[in-house]
Design goal:
The chain has about 950 residues and is mainly α. The chain is built from 45 helices and seven strands. It is elongated, with a radius of gyration of 34 Å.
């Protein structure tokens, strides 16, 4: 027989490497906090099959860390995976209970109203409130944990999550967000995850995807192995006596395959049966072992009698809500009967109570003989001695302050037992018990969200009360930033099904719940809702508007415009029709190609000709008209007038703000963009700064905030502050990358960043961005900010790929001229095409430059005029070139466009040969963060004088 292993580190057999890794991680965490230097936390992951000893390992880590750290614990549950943030609440509620309400609000960083419902510290907002932004909730919780870690630097936090494979996706998304905050992977806390092995395959979603991402960033990931024969023999002799012989121990190891849980259970049964641990008894082990798992375990439970069996099944359904009162109500027992049957289940090592778990994590836990093995039978969730019961996972709000645990709260001794008991019930009995649990929880005062996990399991039965509860639960889930949970409730409500007069409303609510996170599903649900009776006029308008938003988000702009136009025809004149018309004109204008762009522009101009901005529908249409006028190259003064009418005292009107759900953020965004390209970056900057503030106050941190950073980058690009522009644009891409791939904000931000990097002379970086985000054909179905083909042509010129640049710019000209869009700053294709053609086809280049100058004169901004004059100067003879460039410099010096001024001054210095002018141009370029010498190859070739 192999020798007993050298180490039983921390009282556990054959877990030295795992415990050493944890001890080192805790030492590093504490050292970093003590020294006041960089954080030294991180992620540890332990993987292993059920019964392999993950929980006991976490117990030991808990015991070794609690003297120096704040240990926060949680455990996933097989029946709790649909309960959003139940793991988050287990982890954070006990820690937050140590602080008073004012401190908790400070830890929430001004977002208490957003985060408290998700944490169970406050009831969800009223149904009329806008849904919480899921990304904002995740980020807010991640920042809260960071602030909490800072407050606990003397005892830095260690987060232990057991059975993470049964954690809810929202909690794992939060941990994923928290562990991404530091690029060096050094966290202010230690996160330890224990879960079963992940399924093979690369296309993981949901919980497996988050666990895989967390493992990728882990300091170490360790797989737990079964006990060796030597360790099994040592355990047998500790339990049954030193006279346990080799044949008995070998058979024990063979029967259990070295699984720690099964080994301990089998030894306990052998001890209960007073089995002699010798070769003659070895043949009995296989029969005893069958009782520790699956059907054998259920048979052993049933041998205890009907009462314990009924109580165990009730615990399997109630899960974390298994309190004596609820158990008595659901199992049809009196209080004494619950106590009597509980004791029978405890003696059979089937359930544990809160008192049992507190004792096992107390100072004397090491005296338990079962604690000497990797997988002790009582696989309770590790719990930090504190004021809250981490097993409680229902989403009802709790009051700030101490939460006293109920020591009689029942829990299965091991997840294997829970799974076996739950699976032993017939489907009919199981669903019936879930239905009874739902009503018992409702009667006990639990909210719809807490009840919904049971309603999801009952059979559809055309019960309007079930539909009502599920709809209410969906509202609560949306309020805490859990749209997936809301969708599950509403999809189940449709299966009930609702009454005919409310079916369309449930479809509408389901479409809204998945609005931009699952646009294809939203389109399906809202289209179905609009095809059924049951929506009043207001909801019908709103459903159409949201359907168009989803179609646009799904790159179906033509279809979005069509559904809006169709509904507008059916809607009587007034505010509702104008709302639909504004969105229709907007989405038609957003299309990369349309059949009759000039005709649409004329209809829009005619419709808004006499508008004064009397209400929000007029203001929205004026905004769309102003943006369209800017794109067409109409006089900037008219564009600014239209935008001014769309605002109230220079800011968006109430109801048209950045976070308003009725109109969307596009309306104020279009106003600011039109200002930016009309030489009013100050007004644009004020609007976009307010956008960031509004999004942050509302807790939005997804694509909206990414786009707000992009818009601020646009403002700095127009002002010529290229480093600042690059900063905002790179941050916009970083924020967008967290949301998904290939989003509209990716196209706009990448386009602006490429333009900015080319302006800075960083052509290789610009190419890297273009390649990373697939910036180039095939182009999306929506326009890009600014014109994408024009910017790509500019990049190709900077790379010296003149022929490709000319082809790209010519394609841009064909598309834009057909639509009547002639803004030479938004779409600078004529300026760059003329420069590219000047050395080889000066006549054509001169014609393009002359047209660009005519359009610039119509626009009338200093930037457009200066850029067009600078372009014309490249084709003119030397005296005329000097005159044109002098005039261009005068215009650009009076504009907000510092970078374009630097380029014009450089051209003038080259034409005049003035060293002083060259130095002045170079100094201005340096102020802008640009290197002009590396970006002006085409200009230099077109100039009649070589550069100095």
């Amino acid at each position: 027989m192999p020798a007993v292993p050298d180490g039983s580190h921390g009282g556990l057999l054959e877990r030295d490497p795992e415990l050493a890794a944890a001890a080192h991680a805790v030492d590093e965490l504490v050292a970093g906090a003590t020294e006041g230097g960089p954080a030294r936390g991180g992620i540890l992951v332990y993987r292993g099959e059920s019964g392999i000893g993950k929980t006991t390992l976490l117990d030991e880590i808990h015991r070794t860390a609690r003297d120096r750290c704040t240990v926060l614990t949680a455990r996933g549950g097989e029946t709790l995976t649909s309960v959003p943030f139940h793991v988050t609440r287990q982890l954070l509620q006990p820690a937050l209970d140590r602080f008073d309400e004012e401190d908790v609000r400070l830890l929430c960083g001004g977002h208490f109203d957003l985060l408290a419902p998700a944490l169970g510290l406050a009831p969800p907002p009223p149904p009329s409130a806008a849904p919480a932004d899921p990304q904002g909730v995740r980020d807010g919780l991640a920042k809260l944990l960071g602030r909490l870690a800072d407050r606990l630097r003397d005892r830095p936090p260690v987060l232990l999550v057991d059975d993470a494979h049964w954690a809810d996706a929202e909690s794992l998304a939060w941990l994923d967000a928290f562990t991404r905050i530091r690029r060096d992977r050094r966290l202010p806390a230690l996160v330890v995850l224990a879960h079963r092995p992940l399924s093979e395959g690369t296309r993981r979603t949901g919980v497996p995807a988050f666990l895989a991402a967390l493992a990728d960033r882990a300091v170490v990931t360790l797989g737990l192995h079964a006990l060796t024969l030597g360790a099994t023999a040592a355990l047998a002799r500790d339990t049954l006596g030193g006279h346990a012989d080799e044949p008995f121990c070998r058979e024990l190891w063979t029967v259990t395959s070295g699984n720690p849980y099964e080994t301990v259970e089998l030894l306990a049964k052998a001890r209960d049966r007073m089995l002699e641990p010798v070769a003659g008894s070895a043949s009995l082990l296989r029969g005893l072992g069958a009782e520790a798992r699956g059907g054998g375990l259920v048979a052993r439970l049933e041998e205890l009698g009907a009462g314990p069996t009924r109580l165990a099944r009730t615990i399997a359904v109630l899960g974390a809500d298994s309190t004596p009162d609820l158990l008595a109500s659901l199992a049809g027992m009196s209080g004494p009967e619950v106590a009597e049957n509980t004791e029978l289940l405890r003696q059979a090592r089937i359930v544990t109570t809160g008192a049992d778990r507190a004792a096992r994590t107390g100072p004397d836990a090491g005296d338990d003989p079962n604690a000497a093995v990797a997988g002790a039978p009582a696989h309770e969730s590790p719990a930090d001695p504190g004021p809250a019961d981490p097993g409680s996972a229902h989403p009802d709000p709790v009051q700030l302050g101490p939460v006293h645990p109920d020591s009689a709260h029942l829990e299965f001794a091991h997840p294997l037992i829970a799974s076996a008991v739950y699976g032993s019930m017939s489907p009919a009995a199981r669903t019936a018990l879930h239905g009874l649990a739902a009503w018992a929880l409702t009667a006990a005062g639990h909210g719809p969200a807490a009840v919904s996990r049971h309603l999801l399991e009952v059979h559809p039965d055309e019960d309007e009360e079930v539909v009502r509860q599920l709809r209410a639960a969906a509202v609560e889930h949306l309020a805490v930033g859990a749209p997936d949970a809301a969708r599950r409730c509403l999809e189940r409500a449709l299966e009930e099904p609702p009454a005919p007069d409310s079916y369309a409303r449930v479809l509408y609510e389901l479409g809204c719940a998945s609005l931009l996170t699952a646009p294809a599903a939203t389109v399906r649900h809202l289209s179905s809702a609009l095809g059924l009776p049951g929506l009043d006029d207001g909801l019908r308008i709103d459903a159409t508007y949201r359907l168009a938003q989803a179609l646009a988000h799904n790159n179906q702009l033509r279809e979005a415009a069509r559904v809006l136009a169709d509904e507008a025809v059916r809607t009587p004149p007034g505010t509702d029709r104008r709302r639909l018309q504004a969105a229709n004109f907007m989405y038609e204008g957003f299309q990369a190609a349309e059949e009759d762009g000039p005709g649409r522009s004329r209809r829009l101009a005619d419709l808004t000709a006499h508008f004064t901005g009397a209400d929000n529908s007029e203001r929205a249409l004026l905004t769309v008209r102003g943006f369209d006028a800017m794109m067409r190259g109409e006089p900037a003064d008219e564009v600014v007038r239209l935008c001014d009418l769309a605002l109230v005292d220079g800011i968006p009107a109430r109801g048209l703000g950045w976070t308003d759900a009725t109109w969307g953020f596009e309306i104020p965004a279009l106003t600011g963009i039109a200002y930016a390209f009309s030489d009013r970056p100050d007004r644009a900057g004020a609007l976009f700064t307010e956008a960031v503030r509004a999004f942050e106050i509302s807790g939005w941190s997804g694509a909206h905030v990414a786009f707000a950073h992009t818009l601020l980058g646009l403002v700095h690009r127009r002002r010529g502050n290229l480093p600042r522009a690059q900063h905002y644009l790179e941050e916009g891409l970083r924020l967008a990358d967290r949301v998904g791939n290939g989003l509209p904000v990716h196209w706009d931000t990448a386009c602006l960043l490429v333009d900015t990097l080319v302006a800075r002379g960083r052509t290789a970086e610009a190419r890297s961005v273009a390649d990373r985000y697939s910036f180039g054909p095939p182009w999306p179905g929506a326009i890009v900010l600014p014109d994408g083909p024009s910017v790509l042509g500019r990049l190709l010129l900077a790379e010296g790929r003149v022929e490709e640049a000319v082809a790209t710019l010519e394609a841009a000209s064909e598309a834009l001229i057909e639509r009547g869009r002639h803004h030479v700053v938004w779409a600078p294709w004529p300026l760059d095409l003329a420069r590219a053609l000047a050395p080889t086809d000066p006549d054509r280049a001169a014609g393009i430059a002359a047209e660009a100058r005519a359009h610039a004169e119509r626009i009338g901004t200093r930037t457009a005029l200066g850029e067009a004059l600078r372009c014309a100067a490249l084709i003119a003879d030397p005296p005329e070139s000097r005159r044109l460039l002098t005039e261009a410099v005068d215009h650009l010096a009076a504009s907000p466009s510092r970078y374009e001024e630097a380029r014009a001054r450089l051209d003038l210095a080259r034409v005049t040969g003035s060293a002083e002018a060259l130095a002045e141009a170079t100094a201005l370029a340096t102020t802008c963060g640009a290197s002009l010498l590396t970006t002006d190859a085409v200009t230099a070739r077109a100039s009649s004088h070589p550069p100095q």
